[in-house]
Design a protein that fits this description.
- The protein is α/β, with parallel strands linked by helices.
- The protein is built from 8 helices and 9 strands.
- The longest helix has 14 residues.
- It is globular, with a radius of gyration of 17 Å.
- Bound molecules: iron/sulfur cluster.
- Iron/sulfur cluster binds next to loops.
Length: 234
């Protein structure tokens, strides 16, 4: 399986220590993507190597997070890993762009996911502007499947001042359903579209102001995530 790296984290699965596995490759080309190296990384790890990493940290781990890239490109590998994670009694989280609803359905049917973090990049009809592909309907389908399955869902949007207006974010919030909605701070270093390196990183206070504006339109917890303050509940 293509795995760009792993890291132990206390912030990726709230209140839980987790081993985060970053799967490489992604078919999208989000202009603000800062995982550029991961998109092309050809490093591989076997399931046994991943299993050994899980086993060696198991005493202090609560969860395994599979992130990317777009991990669902390697769904067989996710199934193999999450089946093992469930066997050893840890929790599972998947980070995804949601563009493969059928693969999400497969994971949900197997009862292998406890928590999904879904990137909703803009309103569903406007995806091409951000990702280069009209995949909004697939992302919506994934969101609906996760909600129908009763799995904990967090939706995240990376807010880029030159790509999103405040109205875009308010409209987006009107289209989504989840337990948590997080507005993430855009980072302008090492991004896919070099033009975005000149765009100023939004100030966390402005992000909090935006989050307070969208809060009345969202039935759930609203958060802001920034480099300066980490996660803040609004
Ligand atoms: S931001 Fe995520 S979905 Fe977009 S290109 Fe990067 S890895 Fe893929």
């Amino acid at each position: 399986m293509y795995v760009g790296g792993t890291v132990i984290s206390s912030v990726e699965f709230h209140g839980n220590m987790s081993l985060v596995i970053f799967m490489s490759k992604c078919p999208l080309a989000c202009r603000y993507c800062h995982n550029v190296e991961l998109l092309e990384d050809n490093s591989e790890k076997s399931f046994d190597e991943i299993k050994k990493e899980i086993d060696s940290s198991r005493d202090f781990l609560d969860a395994i997070v599979i992130s990317g890239g777009e991990p669902l490109l390697q769904n067989d590998a996710i199934i193999e890993i999450f089946k093992y994670v469930k066997e050893v009694g840890l929790k599972t989280k998947l980070d995804t762009s949601g563009i493969y609803p059928d693969k999400i359905r497969e994971l949900l049917d197997l009862n292998l996911v406890d928590y999904v973090s879904l990137d909703v990049k803009t309103t569903f009809s406007d995806y091409r502007k951000i990702t280069g592909a009209d995949v909004g309907d697939d992302v919506k389908k994934s969101m609906d499947l996760i909600n129908d399955a009763g799995v904990h869902l967090e939706i995240r949007t990376t807010y880029v001042p030159t790509l999103h207006t405040e109205k875009d974010i308010i409209d987006l919030v009107g289209e989504i359903k989840a337990e948590v909605y997080t507005i993430q701070q855009f980072r302008n270093k090492n991004v896919l579209d070099p033009a975005l390196e000149k765009v100023e990183v939004p100030n966390p206070h402005d992000l909090a102001k935006l989050a307070r504006k969208v809060k009345p339109y969202f039935d759930g917890i609203v958060k802001v995530k920034s480099g300066e303050f980490g996660e803040q509940v609004i």
